[in-house]
Write a structure and sequence with these properties.
Blueprint: H1 3-11, E1 14-16, E2 20-23, E3 28-29, H2 38-55, E4 56-59, E5 62-65, E6 73-75, E7 80-82, H3 92-102, H4 106-111, H5 115-129, E8 141-145, E9 148-152, H6 154-157, H7 161-173, H8 187-190, E10 195-199, E11 213-220, E12 226-234, E13 237-245, H9 260-265, E14 278-281, H10 291-302, H11 313-323, H12 326-338, H13 345-354, H14 358-371, H15 387-395, H16 404-419, H17 429-437, H18 449-452, H19 455-459, H20 469-477, H21 483-498, H22 509-512, E15 514-520, E16 526-533, E17 536-544, E18 549-557, H23 567-570, E19 580-592, E20 595-600, E21 604-608, E22 620-623, E23 629-636
Parallel strand pairs: 8-14
Antiparallel strand pairs: 1-2, 2-3, 4-5, 6-7, 8-9, 10-11, 11-12, 12-13, 15-23, 16-17, 17-18, 18-22, 19-20, 19-21, 19-23
Helix pairs in contact: 1-2, 10-11, 11-12, 12-14, 13-14, 14-15, 16-17
Length: about 650
């Protein structure tokens, strides 16, 4: 700051031998020791007073706010200045230094510069509240919301961005409801310089090289917050620092709350009646927010680990979103991700979409990819699955199913439940088949108006993976699929059988392979299933070695082997080829501490014979504490 501005600053100071520098209209004294020269004092206080004068101008003993362009603060240690109330002016270096000094996220501030003010106020209050017991004093803020009045305290209120903005807006406007209580606040709370103190060597040596000298100015912001300006002179240099604290901290800083200067300031001020509680209002239209959930959210302002009932977590999440209470919102998201089950999957997924919480929606999708067929498909909650979510899951290459026909039955049951809202129990499969058979035979169900919107779902199925004759007959008799679909499936099977099992119609393993699965539960030490495809027989198998070690593989077997089920070959073909070229992939997934672990082989092409080692695939070895394990086997028969 140049000399002209300095002269303007010190024109407002009355230098008295006994009192030091005095700022008119404030009762603030620097307590300059008697006999000291004002010149060294002026030189040392230049940085600090410049900051004070940039923020407040004193004319004829009255306080007048300066223009916004002079309201600035210094950040970092590089003497760069930032204008906090202006929109971002393109000074990326200055903004970066400010964010680094204030420990805030640079990218978030770039998105919304105005938000930095609220976030810093939150940090101030949250920092001062750490490791402190909750105050038991009378509440000083009343929140009217949901037809009720909620009593709050200012420090806790500032954990919510929404409540902080409402409070600061009321404070900035100088109004409270129902009267303008701020105008009735004592001047000690509304004018800077309510408290000041000085430290020195006790002998008036302000510039002594051996003893540091310190001035401290306390500038109230509101009834709970102060800006402390500390000016220190040591070894011929002057240092200025600013920070914000609460009145409870002033004593620790060495600033007496009942100092002579504050008493002097209040000397002619009459005792005023207690300040009325400030009233702020919040209107909520979100149907998810209930009084119980909102009360739980407000309780978390005071107790960071307050218990949240799983039945109320949706309402608490919605309340946290409206309050902009970030820590509580993320806590609810974590609870929901760990509490996924058939009864909650729909509501949690829709909440993730509504509040654009991608980790939550992704967790719902991954959970349903594993549990659609083995768990949700056996319960009435299947009806609640949104079509959009179901479509995403059906398209996923990670989808788990025991076989393609199981997946088809699950999807047919979902359609049945959508069309029969009064059904409250899961029907048997024969009831579902009878329902679709009852439709007119002139057109298939998917060709009718009721089924056309469902076509994208059934296009995700791999109908060529349904190979049992009995199951294929069911597809034809229920009159669900268009005739062209069934003709194509039958033709593909015929050509594969005619060519020794070669699947000429299948090219891509990831999207067209036949899928089979094992659900390896806690009670298993070994678990296997037999598969018959175009006269070739395979066993898919899982083995548990110890509590955390598993192996999954597939192997070719002969239909004459001991223990081989006769139902697989009595009514089907048997191939006499000694070798079969197979392209396959084995995948295993399990949930551990809320995160999915995935193990997989590469896509492997191998000739399978009848004798070892050619009869056995590569083994997928799994080390995990997760249970159950969803093991998927995907393979095709390339042209050999």
């Amino acid at each position: 700051m140049d000399n002209m501005v300095h002269d303007k600053v010190f024109q407002t100071l009355s230098l008295k031998p006994s009192m030091g520098a005095y700022i008119p209209g404030t009762g603030v004294s620097s307590a300059l020791p008697q006999g000291s020269s004002p010149r060294p004092f002026k030189k040392m206080l230049q940085p600090g007073l410049a900051w004070l004068m940039d923020n407040h101008t004193y004319i004829s003993g009255s306080l007048m706010r300066h223009r916004a362009r002079l309201e600035r603060r210094m950040v970092g240690s590089t003497n760069r200045w930032r204008f906090p109330r202006e929109a971002f002016n393109g000074d990326l270096l200055g903004l970066s230094q400010m964010c680094k000094a204030l420990n805030v996220d640079f990218e978030e501030i770039l998105k919304n510069p105005d938000r930095s003010c609220i976030s810093q106020i939150q940090k101030i209050f949250l920092g001062n509240l750490k490791n402190k017991t909750i105050q038991s004093g009378e509440a000083d803020v009343i929140l009217t919301c949901l037809g009720s009045k909620w009593e709050l305290h200012q420090p806790q209120l500032f954990q919510s961005e929404t409540l902080a903005k409402l409070f600061l807006m009321a404070l900035a406007q100088g109004t409270t409801s129902p009267t303008k209580e701020l105008e009735r606040l004592p001047r000690a709370w509304t004018e800077p310089g309510a408290v000041s103190t000085v430290r020195g060597d006790g002998k008036g040596r302000l510039n002594s090289p051996a003893f540091p000298t310190e001035w401290m100015f306390v500038l109230p912001l509101c009834s709970v917050a102060f800006v402390v300006c500390r000016v220190t002179s040591f070894l011929g240099s002057c240092f200025v620092s600013f920070f914000i604290t609460q009145n409870l901290e002033l004593g620790r800083l060495g600033v007496p709350i009942e100092s002579p200067h504050s008493a002097h300031l209040r000397g002619n001020v009459k005792e005023r009646p207690p300040i009325k509680k400030m009233i702020i209002s919040l209107k909520i239209n979100d149907p998810l927010v209930t009084k119980v959930a909102f009360a739980t959210a407000l309780k978390n302002l005071y107790l960071s680990k307050a218990e949240i009932n799983m039945n109320d977590v949706l309402g608490v999440l919605a309340s946290a979103h409206i309050l902009q209470f970030g820590s509580l919102f993320q806590r609810c998201v974590a609870m929901m991700m760990n509490g996924l089950m058939p009864s909650t999957i729909k509501d949690f997924y829709l909440a993730g979409c509504k509040y654009k919480e991608e980790p939550l929606t992704t967790a719902c999708e991954k959970w349903l990819e594993m549990n659609l067929v083995p768990l949700v498909g056996t319960q009435i909650h299947l009806r609640k699955i949104p079509q959009e979510l179901l479509h995403k899951v059906l398209r996923s290459p990670r989808l788990f199913t025991f076989n393609e026909f199981h997946l088809l039955k699950t999807l047919l049951l979902w359609v049945f439940l959508q069309l029969n809202h009064k059904i409250q129990t899961v029907p048997v499969h024969e009831t579902v088949l009878a329902f679709f058979k009852s439709f007119p035979k002139k057109h298939s169900f998917l060709d009718q108006d009721a089924g056309q919107s469902l076509v994208p779902l059934f296009l995700c199925l791999r109908l060529h993976g349904i190979i049992k004759g009995k199951n294929l007959e069911e597809l034809r008799h229920i009159n669900f699929f268009p005739e062209s679909w069934l003709i194509r499936v039958t033709a593909n099977h015929y050509h594969a059988l005619e060519n020794g099992g070669d699947m000429v119609h299948v090219k891509d393993l990831a999207t067209q392979a036949m899928r089979f699965g094992l659900l390896f539960s806690q009670e298993y030490t070994t678990h296997s299933e037999m598969i018959a495809i175009y006269g070739f027989f395979f066993e898919i198998k899982g083995i548990k070695h110890d509590t955390t070690s598993y192996t999954f593989y597939m192997q070719r077997v002969k239909h004459t082997d001991l223990g081989f089920p006769s139902l697989l070959y009595e009514h089907g073909p048997v191939s006499l080829r000694t070798e079969r070229l197979v392209k396959y992939e084995i995948r295993a997934q399990t949930l551990v501490d809320g995160k999915w672990q995935e193990f997989r082989t590469n896509q492997i092409t191998q000739k399978f014979g009848f004798i070892k080692p050619s009869c056995k695939s590569h083994a997928l070895k799994v080390q995990t504490v997760g249970i159950p394990i969803y093991a998927s086997f995907s393979f095709i028969f390339p042209t050999s």
